[in-house]
Amino acid sequence: MLDLVLKNGKIVDGSGNPWYLGDVGVKDGVIVSVGQIDQEAHNVIDVNRKIISPGFIDGHCHSDLMIIDHPHSDIKLQQGVTTEVVGNCGLAPAPFVRSKAELLQTYVQPVLGSTSWEWPWETVGQYMDFVARSQPSEHIATYVAHGALRIAVMGFENRPANSAEIARMKELLEEGLRAGAIGLSIGLLYAPGSYTSREELVELCSVLPKYNGLFSTHIRGEGNNLLPSVAEVIWIAERAGISLHISHLKAAGKANWGKVLEALELVENARARGMDVTVDVYPYNAGSTTLTTVLPPWVLEGGIEATLEAFRNPSLRARIKEELSHEQQHWDNLVCSTGWNSIVISAVQSEANKSLEGKHIAEVAEIRGQHPVDCMMDLLLEENGQIAIVYFHMSDDDVKQVIAYEKSLIASDSLNCEIGKPHPRTYGTFPRVFAKYVREDKVLSLEQAVRKLTSFPVQRFKLGKRGLIVPGYLADITVFDMDTIQDTATFADPRQFPTGISHVVVNGQLTMQHGVHTHKREGSLIRAQHCCSI
């Protein structure tokens, strides 16, 4: 007897092939039959010609700590997501050195959030074990994060690593890879990643081939420096002989709109030379990050306390204001290219400033009677450096170009959403792909969209036998209505679950039924070794 049969569905199997009518049978967490199934089952659900798809993979997000505090993962399961990949952009809570605890925790807090409990891990492997013991309702895989490596070894020192420091970072990287991390992620926009030369990264990446690890990159610049930044990471990957994945490809700032086509041409040229290069994209024209990312890189030396101290120094404050007033050659001044009215405060820590959430910096500066740069620095002082922002700096046409690109997959890049007004991509990314880019704008076919959310990210991140509706594959399945699937989260009111997703199966267990969580916690920690789930 089967455990579960989903009957009478339009099966979109994840391969990109056309949908077909059929049933899906599940036994012991595995898809055992596909087609017309007459065998008895403990649970038979007639899905009435809804879409039966593999569970969606969020291949780029920042749920590293949320998955521990909220293991039921309602926000992602409501979107049909059955697996998340964390440790992105060089940001992760491990490796963790007690003597540099505050440096790492204040570094990741605006993106990953904070915890009310002490972190009990030190290594990446110990972090992974802790996540597994939390018994999440979805599967989790992780990178080793370069920012955490550098902080553990060097703190926020703005200088090249010496040979002993590089050797220690390589040891920590290898520990994480041995534990089952899928590769190395870097965040060259963020200090201390921004202090790292490409030659240093080539040396660090020399560890990856032994483990067939992926090199995932938040590039150094996404505005005026977009093209040299893409060229830089291609150069690193080519010399290290490794596979490259470019995160959330975009062109920031109106003067740069259209450059994504040139960036994609750089990717295609690299692939023509035999390099394995792919990209991901989120389906919105606004991003989300921390307010400190608008600062000149030198201001972030020494960690957040040193940054706040610089704001208290009149001469350094004047230097910051002057540098933010014009374009820069060696780093992207997105304030200059985009404007303060495009930077919206999404989350603050204090009750005193809660009323500012949802307002852009130019508006807040006008209310306070300040220059926007002074306003920004004072806000960061008031909030101890912990302010999240939503950044409206992209073109809808550019987003469509990257979504349509054959070698792109789609992910949320969702941040911690414990407080404030998070980017709506946290609640709406995956339904939005079908509602806007399949049904309305017809940028993708149904089958293309499912492939970009299922088998493609599974292949890219080496996530094992999932991502296809095929006998012998793990039973991670999402059922949705193509006519009614819809994201409802907005920038003004982002905490809204989508509609149109009725059932989600994780590891063979019905985890969402008729849009309601069943409290099943059958997820696992996916370890790339190479590629078993435990």
Q: How are the SSEs ordered, and which strands pair?
A:
Layout: E1 2-11, E2 20-27, E3 30-35, E4 41-46, E5 51-54, E6 56-58, H1 66-69, H2 74-77, E7 81-86, H3 101-112, H4 124-133, E8 139-142, E9 144-145, H5 146-154, H6 163-179, E10 183-187, H7 198-205, H8 208-211, E11 214-218, H9 226-240, E12 243-246, H10 259-272, E13 277-281, E14 286-290, H11 304-311, H12 314-323, H13 334-338, E15 343-347, H14 361-368, H15 372-382, E16 388-392, H16 396-404, E17 408-410, H17 425-440, H18 446-453, H19 455-461, E18 477-480, E19 501-506, E20 509-513, E21 516-517, E22 526-527, E23 532-533
Parallel strand pairs: 1-4, 1-5, 6-7, 7-8, 9-10, 10-11, 11-12, 12-13, 13-17
Antiparallel strand pairs: 1-2, 2-3, 5-18, 14-16, 15-16, 18-19, 19-20, 20-21, 22-23
Provide an overview of this structure.
It contains 19 helices and 23 strands. It has 534 residues and is of the alpha/beta class.
Oligomer: single chain
Distance between the termini: 25 Å
Mean pLDDT: 95
Helical residue percent? Answer: 25-40%
| Rounded radius of gyration (Å) | 22 Å
Number of strands: 23
The residue ranges in which pLDDT falls below 50 over 5 or more consecutive positions are 530-534
Q: Can you summarize the main beta sheet?
A: 9 strands, mixed
What shape does the CA trace take?
globular
Strand content: 15-25%
Structural class: alpha/beta
Number of helices: 19
